[in-house]
Amino acid sequence: MEPERAAAALAPLRALCATLLVRGERPSGITPWGLGASRDRGNRPHSARGGIQPGRRGAVSGLNGRTDRLARTAVVILVSMLALGGVVFALLTSPYFDEIQYWQMGRSLLHTGVYSLTPGGPPTTYKVPGVPIALAATQTLGLDFTASRVLFALLLLPLGAWLAWRWLTSLGVPKQASACAVAFAFANPALIVSSGTLYPQFAVGVAYLGAIAAWSASERRNAKVSRWLLALVAGLALGLSVMLASTAVVVIAAMLVWVLWRARRRSARGEARLGVQLASVGIVAVGVCLVVAPWLVRNASVTGRFPLMGTSAGITLLEGNAPASTVDNGPEMRFTGDDNPPAGLSEVAQDEFFRARALDHIRTQPIYYGRLYLAKVAYGLWPTAVTATKGPNAVADVLQRFYYGLLYLGLLAWVFAKKRLALAHPWIVDIAPYLNLGILMATASLLSYAAFFTRLRYRLPTDIPLGLFAGLSAYLLFVAWTERRGRRDTPTR
Predict the structure, then answer these.
(1) Among residues 4, 202, 240, 458, which one has the fewest Cβ atoms lying within 10 Å of its Cβ?
(2) Are 457 and 191 in contact (CB under 8 A)?
(3) Closest Cα partner for 381 from 312, 256, 313, 466?
(4) How far apart are CA 20 and CA 322, in angstroms?
(5) Rounded to an integer, what distance in angstroms lies between the CA atom of residue 384 and that of residue 455?
(6) How many CB atoms lie within 10 A of CB 483?
(7) pLDDT of the residue at 135
(8) SS3 sequence, 99-126?
(9) With contact defined as beta carbons under 8 Å apart, do 106 and 133 qualify?
(10) What is the pLDDT of residue 466?
(11) How many Å apart are CA 213 and CA 168, to the nearest integer?
(12) What is the dihedral of CA 92, 94, 95, 97, to 10 degrees?
């Protein structure tokens, strides 16, 4: 009788196998990418009844493990290829005017110990010192201009991709989704071009990512790293962004608004005490001050004032608000008439002269310059806005239109579908608020730059977080399509 009992016990399993073979079904939640709709961090596929199907735990775990490794490998390969693209651009293009200035300021700092526009010149506050200090370090290592470009391309893009990957996966985003997000965000053609130059925008974007990742980790209970230390790291990263591009101050203010709004909401839901969160914000502010304060003190000792944005702000403001200004002009514009400064003015006096002339133009014709401001805002959103003073080419136009078209469509898809998709992908709930942060950062950056003039590269630091969400949208749409196709191809009884 024992063989008969064994056969009876195996009958349900035989029936299940026969059904799967005949109907070609797979357990609910398993897709070609090994996905599962589960709230737990392991991302284990669940059945339609809400649990892991018996006898399939090992197969599902192995499938997810293989797809996770595949996702990591794909990201590493893609980031390496993009970094090589930046290296090629660094090797084949001639330097831009601002890059030459950065290089000379770094050389002056290295050889004379004085931060000036040219070696042997008087102390300057014309530009914030982040990039020149980095170039002084590369010159200490014996690297020339092109080698410094190549080094930055090889370091910044992988670092930014790693920070984005760590941040997304720490919020419970599946590795496959994280891979899609990182791939899309860093495949921006303008971002690849910028990585091959000494312009600070890519480094600013990496600093933003570091600050967001550190702050996100500080909100969670982590026994390994103190929340206060993480908040300090976020502040240091934001301070570094100011030392790379002074207009980051406006973006930091927008980030502060979002953090305070989020602190209030988390406190109302009982997720964290308001006082603890405000203390973390205070530590972030301390971190920013630790980086920025030495620059302000130095400026006060040299010029007697605190030009946080540097003494280049006045001439930049006039370049964007002169009678001959257009939406796409910039440093290549030449001043005429009363806009030319008198001879013999100091650097600080010239900055004040240019600022006063720009404000005079705006007060004289407020409607005209108001319209020009709105036109510059719209131009900053256009995918073919020039990336630098040399302007784009036909290939860049096509690539930028295609990329930013996908970016805008991806963001729209996320906004309109996130609530519905959150039912099947609960990790969306944890990361969705950060899209509000990305939009707020991008808006603050665009509105501040439009007061001067706009370039596509100016928006790159805030395009990185938005690109991550557009990549997540692409992943979710692909998953929804494969699941719908699987249901449609499955015959019904």
Answers:
(1) 4
(2) no
(3) 466
(4) 73
(5) 9
(6) 17
(7) 93
(8) HHHHHHHHHHHHHHCCCCCCCCCCCCCC
(9) yes
(10) 94
(11) 9
(12) -150
Neighbouring C-beta atoms of residue 228, cutoff 10 Å: 13
Give CA–CA dist 81/439, Å, rounded.
29
Q: What is the 3-state secondary structure (H, E, C) of 326-347?
A: CCCCCCCCCCCHHHCCCCCCCH
Can you read off the two tokens belonging to residue 394? 């036909």
Question: Using CA atoms, how far apart are residues 112 and 338, in angstroms rounded to an integer?
Answer: 37
Answer for the pair 421, 428: CB distance below 8 angstroms, yes or no.
yes
What tokens were used for 208? 């933003």
Helical axes 97-112 vs 145-170, angle rounded to 10°: 100
Long-range CB pairs of 78-84, under 8 A, 24+ apart, other chains included: 78/183, 78/186, 78/187, 79/157, 79/158, 79/161, 79/182, 79/186, 80/158, 82/157, 82/186, 82/187, 82/192, 82/195, 83/153, 83/154, 83/157, 83/158, 83/195
* Residue located via tokens 């050889």: 111
Place of tokens 């390994």: 224
Nearest to 159 by CA among 77, 217, 79: 79
Residue 117 corresponds to which amino acid? L
Q: Which residues of the chain have pLDDT under 50?
A: 1-2, 6, 10, 12-63, 388-391
Sign of CA dihedral 479, 35, 183, 251: positive
**Cβ atoms 354, 312 nearer than 8 A:** no
Q: pLDDT of 61-112, one tens digit each?
A: 444 567 777 878 888 888 888 889 889 888 988 888 889 999 999 999 988 8
pLDDT at 276: 84
Q: Kind and range of the H or E element at 216? A: helix 201-219
Rounded CA separation 110/77 (Å): 37
CA–CA distance, 343 with 409 (Å, rounded to integer): 52
- The domain spans of the chain are 20-49+65-489
Contacts of 73 (CB under 8 A, 6+ apart): none
First to last CA, the chain: 36
The DSSP output letter for 197 is S
Distance of alpha carbon 384 from alpha carbon 72, whole angstroms: 32
Question: If you count them, how many residues does the chain have?
Answer: 493
The DSSP letter of residue 187 is T
Return the pLDDT at 233.
Answer: 94
Residue 266, pLDDT score = 84
What's the burial of 27, exposed, middle or buried (CB within 10 Å: 0-12/13-18/19+)? Answer: middle
